[in-house]
């Protein structure tokens, strides 16, 4: 934003309720307060990105900067279509691949490199590195972005984080990382199938990537916040999340967002997704039953003891299992 825009300039990004991120111009974010942000969404029936509607909005508002990328969208993002739209209106295209960077690196999702002039990503999530970020750009924009970072936004580099990002990048270049990314998608697809069989309403009907968005209120009458809190007590960490065209408030929404990168890192595969789906279903059936949640938590601890988090010593894993 600082590299390319002045306060009040028109920008465009996916709206938060449709699956976009706060930083893509949502009104409660500084990115929505400082700029004239236009939000695009998804088709009301399919919940897929509506590229024709996005093109119409772009032609109507002529944004200076356009973001493509999501935070709660379980399908493939077609960066080539976004570039066509951006070119039509003379916008700079920024692809935010924070959630799918690991999948992009491994070839499990199309890459925006060569299509978007700017690519941004966090270095954790599917890239599985430290909490940090990276910006890639065409040469013509590099100097503007560098100046926006320093002195525009930050002063001192965190060299320990930079070193850890280098380690993560090295790991991501290895064949084992490709298998990890493939397994993430296989696990997500299998979990989607199992939950669908149990009667859960999945946004877009399934997934192409690492995450599922479930309209838990529509299928089971349980608000997303209550479901997420109950799942957390049982040992399944997810987050309550708005769904497209949600009738509930953002802090008490209808949906859940669940991802498979963490369980995949621990070594779980498709065969384990049945247990996870069964646990989710048992929690949703009785979210207030503390004894049931405790039993499920014990079962989950037992499974996790056989799949310790990589890099942790046995003594730490023993403590973690007891906790």
Please give the largest β-sheet: 6 strands, mixed
Q: Radius of gyration in whole Å, from Cα?
A: 20 Å
Residue-averaged pLDDT: 94
Q: Strand order across the biggest sheet?
A: 2-1-3-4-5-6
Helix content: 40-55%
Q: Which descriptor suits the 3D outline?
A: globular
End-to-end gap: 43 Å
Low-confidence region ranges: 315-323
Topology pattern, helix = H, strand = E: EHEHEHEHEEHHHEHHEEHHHH
Strand content: 5-15%
Structural class: alpha/beta
* Number of DSSP E strands: 9
| Individual helix count | 13
Task: Name the features.
323 residues; three-stranded antiparallel β-sheet; 9 strands; disordered C terminus
List the helices and strands and how they pair.
Elements: E1 10-14, H1 30-33, E2 36-40, H2 51-61, E3 65-68, H3 79-89, E4 92-96, H4 101-105, E5 118-122, E6 133-137, H5 139-149, H6 159-172, H7 175-197, E7 211-215, H8 216-220, H9 224-234, E8 239-241, E9 255-259, H10 261-265, H11 270-285, H12 290-305, H13 314-322
Helix pairs in contact: 2-3, 7-11, 9-11, 9-12, 12-13
What would your notes on this structure say?
- The chain has 323 residues and is α/β, with parallel strands linked by helices.
- It has 13 helices and 9 strands.
- The strands form 2 sheets. Strands 2-1-3-4-5-6 form a 6-stranded mixed sheet.
- Helix 2 packs parallel to helix 3 (79-89), helix 9 (224-234) packs across helix 12 (290-305) and helix 12 (290-305) packs antiparallel against helix 13 (314-322).
């Amino acid at each position: 934003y600082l590299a390319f825009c002045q306060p009040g300039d028109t920008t465009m990004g996916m709206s938060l309720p449709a699956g976009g991120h706060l930083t893509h111009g949502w009104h409660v974010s500084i990115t929505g307060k400082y700029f004239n942000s236009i939000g695009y969404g998804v088709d009301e029936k399919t919940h897929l990105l509506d590229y024709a509607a996005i093109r119409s909005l772009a032609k109507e508002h002529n944004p200076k900067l356009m973001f493509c990328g999501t935070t709660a969208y379980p399908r493939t993002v077609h960066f080539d279509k976004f570039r066509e739209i951006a070119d039509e209106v003379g916008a700079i295209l920024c692809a935010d691949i924070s959630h799918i960077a690991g999948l992009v690196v491994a070839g499990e999702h199309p890459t925006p490199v060569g299509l978007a002039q700017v690519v941004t990503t966090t270095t954790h999530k599917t890239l599985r590195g430290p909490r940090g970020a990276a910006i890639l750009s065409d040469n013509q924009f590099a100097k503007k972005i560098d100046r926006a970072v320093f002195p525009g936004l930050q002063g001192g580099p965190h060299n320990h984080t930079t070193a850890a990002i280098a380690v993560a990048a090295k790991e991501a270049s290895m064949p084992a990382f490709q298998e990890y990314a493939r397994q993430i998608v296989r696990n997500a697809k299998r979990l989607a199938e199992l939950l669908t069989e149990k009667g859960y309403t999945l946004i877009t009907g399934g997934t192409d990537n690492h995450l599922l968005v479930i309209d838990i209120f529509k299928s089971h009458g349980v608000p997303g916040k209550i479901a997420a809190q109950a799942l957390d007590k049982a040992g399944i960490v997810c987050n309550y999340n708005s769904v497209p065209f949600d009738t509930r408030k953002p802090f008490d929404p209808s949906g859940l967002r669940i991802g498979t990168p963490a369980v995949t890192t621990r070594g779980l595969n498709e065969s384990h997704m049945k247990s996870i789906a069964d646990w989710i279903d048992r929690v949703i059936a009785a979210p207030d039953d503390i004894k049931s949640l405790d039993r499920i938590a014990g079962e989950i601890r037992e499974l996790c003891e056989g799949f310790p988090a990589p890099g942790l010593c046995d003594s730490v894993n023993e403590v973690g299992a007891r906790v």
